[in-house]
Every structure is written in structure tokens, then in C-alpha cells.
Write a structure and sequence with these properties.
The protein has one helix at about 45-65, and strands at about 1-5, 10-15, 20-25, 30, 35-40. It is of the alpha+beta class. The chain has one domain (about 1-65). Strands 3-4-5 form a three-stranded antiparallel beta sheet, with no helix packed on it. The protein has a two-stranded antiparallel ribbon with strand order 1-2. The longest helix has 20 residues, at about 45-65.
Length: about 70
């Protein structure tokens, strides 16, 4: 889950596992697997960085186990 900002400055949490695509039009539009759209203040690169950081946190829990 990542925290993003709507254009009205309200924060929300998005399940990043549902992201299908991210594009800049010039606003950042996130298309979810169910077809819904989220327009956010963050740039596509910032969204990608948040997703990568989330995945690293999730998978780092498994790196030390045998």
C-alpha cells in the first residue's frame, strides 16, 4: 500500500498491486486493473519510487530466512 495525494490535496492509500498503468497527461493518471482511474499530484516517477520502496519493504522480510 502506498500513500498518494489527490489533486484536491487529500491523502489516500492505494493498493499498488492493483496498478495496471501510470501515465502523465500532464496530470498523473493511474489506471487500476478494474478500470478505475486515479488522478494524483505525484509524478509517475514518484509513484514508481513509492511502489519500489513498498516492494522492498515487503520482500526484505523474506531475505534473512532460510
Amino acid at each position: 500500500m502506498i500513500e498518494l495525494t489527490k489533486l484536491n490535496k487529500k491523502k489516500f492509500i492505494l493498493n499498488c498491486e492493483l496498478i495496471e498503468s501510470i501515465e502523465s497527461t500532464p496530470d498523473t493518471v493511474i489506471t487500476l486493473r478494474n478500470g478505475k482511474l486515479c488522478i494524483v499530484a505525484e509524478s509517475p516517477g514518484d509513484v514508481l519510487d513509492l511502489v519500489v520502496a513498498y516492494k522492498r519493504r515487503i520482500f526484505s522480510d523474506f531475505s534473512g530466512q532460510s
